[in-house]
Amino acid sequence: MMQGWEWYGNFGWMLAGGILCLLLIVGALAGLFFLIRTIIRMVNRGRFRPGTLPAVLMMLALTSVAGADLSARTIFVPNASDGTVSAVDTARGRELWQLQVSEAAENRPAEAAHGIAISRDGATLFVGDAVRDELVVVDVASRRISERIAVSHAVHGIDISPDGRTVWVGGANEDRFWLGELTVVDTRTLSIIGVVNPGVGSAAHVSFAPTGDRVWVASTTTNGVWVVDSGSFDLVHTIPLIPEMTGGSTGTPEGAAGYIGINEVAVSPDGTRAYAIGPEASILFAIDTATREVVGKAQGQQRAHGVVVSPDGSEVWVANRSGSVSVFNAATLQQPATIRVGDYANHVAFDETGRTVFVTGRDSVIVIDATTRSVVQTIPVGRDPHEIAIGPPSPRVMLTGGRPEGTQPREPEVRRVSPSPNLVPVNDPHRALALANDWKTRFPSVTTYVTSEMIRFMFPDGQVVDVPMPEDTMMVAAAPYMINTHPCTVHTMSGCQGELRNEPIEVTVFDEHDQIFLQSSARSLQNGFVELWLPRDRRFRVRFEARGRAVEGPIETFDGSPTCITDLQL
């Protein structure tokens, strides 16, 4: 039992502390009262000269933040394996809340939530649901999902333009994962205003030139980057970095599964250089943004994954999945420091002061003092956190409380923007066919089919877009089956459905002389078909092997030949 004198002593200290706090509050209020009264008297006596009020207001502003740590922020990270977003108070060193934005799927167990960006006022988060291929819009104040915007590709990186008017979502085509796509969303109307699908390597993370006119895109399935005009949405440049490591651009790259060539690119604050990194080679590349030539490169640590340039442009920091953060001199690419952060580092970001660096680890956010190069905090979050979005120094994002009721998302209807004819790549039949396959489930109101001459898109409002087929080749879609099939001559991408969905199939095509023309280990699409691009005016014999069975049949590529083969039973 506490002795009487101990109780009275503790009570006395508590009372004294309370009185001291009260005196400080009263003193601050009194000081503010006298300051306001002085300003009023100066105005009444005509002694308030131009420029005095701004000076007083500046003094008040500086006084209000005196002693405050401007590097303290609420930061947000998507936890890829959990499908959640964490809000982290860096001043208090703790997680504030989590919000479920995606459900983990068996085929993507570590990519449920991927990509994140925050609006300039800190009121809205843009997060990727990599399972449902959606851009999730989160109201920060209420901690609720306000919109879900379906995109026509997988979701990887998300970034917001310098003016805050557009959000860019990078990813890959679902059926051809080695081909990249970008979706551009207007942040005011939350409508899709553009889709960039140039038929080059998978789009990962993006970075903007300071002027906002160029978007730099890292490609995971090729060892290079591409540059897009932010106004016209046109691909203006592709920059190969190590050609001999490039997997491919328009065809299936050899060994592309799991290949991560270049994962992230960061443009310097002055816009003169771009720095690219990826775990496959772990080489840091410096690119002159004017000439688009590599002007330097340096070998980094193993499994280099994320990159950022310091606010003053003097340093480049790289997060390595081998468990460290590398610091490079931006001009010379010399490496003055390596900071150990545990067994894993994913992405890295600076606050605007340049004094604090945030790194995502395996299940935490790691805070580094950029001056001393030392870890000062490790804050637990969800599993496998990825990118980092830093909120502004505003009370609207400095939220309190742990995980209160209501942090589970409401489920609004998915916002599915109506497809537009201007999204059809009229000069690229390969991409047009992939788009038609994708729209089969996303936008079933659009009718699509392919003949020997063209691919046709028929929109609900009556508009029709035709994409001419190449003069020297045509496409034939075949759906080998076990039990169920359907009669077909003209392949309708929006309607035809085969029995064997997404299954491995051995394909061999023989020419008129019974010589092997094509041989491949393929996988049927989600619609159960295998698409064969073959020379025109020829006769072939095709053999499919799947589930331990085989079947053969004829294929012709003349004008008017069938584009849909559904009578090959295994």
State the share of residues found in helices, binned by percent: 10-25%
Percent in strands? 35-45%
Label the structural class: mainly beta
What oligomeric state best describes the polypeptide chains here?
A: single chain
Rg of Cα set:
29 Å
Sheet having the most strands: 4 strands, antiparallel
Give the count of helical stretches. 3
Question: Based on CA inertia axes, which overall geometry fits?
Answer: elongated
Spans where pLDDT lies below 50 across 5 or more residues: 1-8, 42-71, 244-259, 394-416
Strand order of the largest sheet: 3-2-1-28
Number of strands: 38
Would you tell me the overall average pLDDT? Answer: 81
The separation of the N and C termini measures 85 Å
